[in-house]
């Protein structure tokens, strides 16, 4: 298996699916006698090495995705994933690349950051997303992603802080939305100018935490006068951002990044695709009989880039955060495959 081409079944490729090699196969022999090593991921119930009791035990020990992938050798994709690779492909522009300064100073520029943490292979990433919003005479707004910055795990907290400041300054951001989470001190330091490159601080920085609000189209400020920290409904904001993407109003430059969900794990394009398509909607019925919808992500995946995209998007489109007065609703694509 380790010397084979490690083929995986990809039902999303082509009209009938295909076995996709994951690496170049090694060879046995030489010349006309050489043979390439092929390998297929076969389900364990079919293989004679695994008993029914083994399969039953693994069903209890593994989550749904691991069980389908590793035991049943099935492609796993919950029906309620918010975005698919096709949605990302539809907004990708290979003719454009990321930039290090504004494309136009006439546009409203937003920065969103999701703070990371942890040390294992599923540790959260710290991700910074910069967006540029262009409004036309008819009121339609298009958004271009200026950059997506996955900060190296080797950076210290102070170095991450400095990296964010560099983006705020170089892009001359109009609004910066930071993940409140466990980082309220960082948000306060940015606002108050504690240990920052600008001693006066940044009055364009606001903190976001997700929770319950009475009007899901709007945010609830902790202090309506200072407006430094707000609470928003995550399900509504995430689904509104997704509708914006599906309406193809977002433009993602891919000219200078490797893209696709099956590339190298640490490639920027691969991480963008995987993390934007990771969240899905989970519907539950409460004890009172009410239907409740939440946005969640499988424990084996990261969605930090998705959150950073949402923060940057909110910086323009949500009431009292950006220049607009109300959150705009978007018609999503209804064509097959969306």
Characterise the protein shown here.
- This protein has 338 residues and is α/β, with parallel strands linked by helices.
- It is 25% helix and 21% strand.
- It is built from 8 helices and 15 strands.
- The strands form 4 sheets. A 9-stranded mixed beta sheet has the order 5-13-8-7-6-9-10-12-11, sandwiched between helices.
- The longest helix is centred in the middle third of the chain and has 14 residues, at 157-170.
- The two termini are 36 Å apart.
- The relative contact order is 0.15.
Number of strands: 15
Biggest sheet: strands, sense, closure?
9 strands, mixed
Oligomer: single chain
For the CA atoms, what is the radius of gyration?
23 Å
Short overview:
The protein is an alpha/beta fold. Helices cover 25% and strands 21% of the residues. It has 8 helices and 15 strands.
Secondary structure layout plus pairing:
Layout: E1 8-10, E2 18-20, E3 27-28, E4 35-36, H1 52-61, H2 64-71, H3 85-91, E5 92-93, E6 108-114, E7 127-135, E8 141-150, H4 157-170, E9 175-179, H5 184-192, E10 205-210, E11 220-221, E12 229-232, H6 234-246, E13 250-253, H7 268-276, E14 280-285, E15 291-296, H8 304-317
Parallel strand pairs: 5-13, 6-9, 8-13, 9-10, 10-12
Antiparallel strand pairs: 1-2, 3-4, 6-7, 7-8, 11-12, 14-15
Give the key terms.
single chain; 338 residues; alpha/beta; two-stranded antiparallel sheet; 15 strands; globular
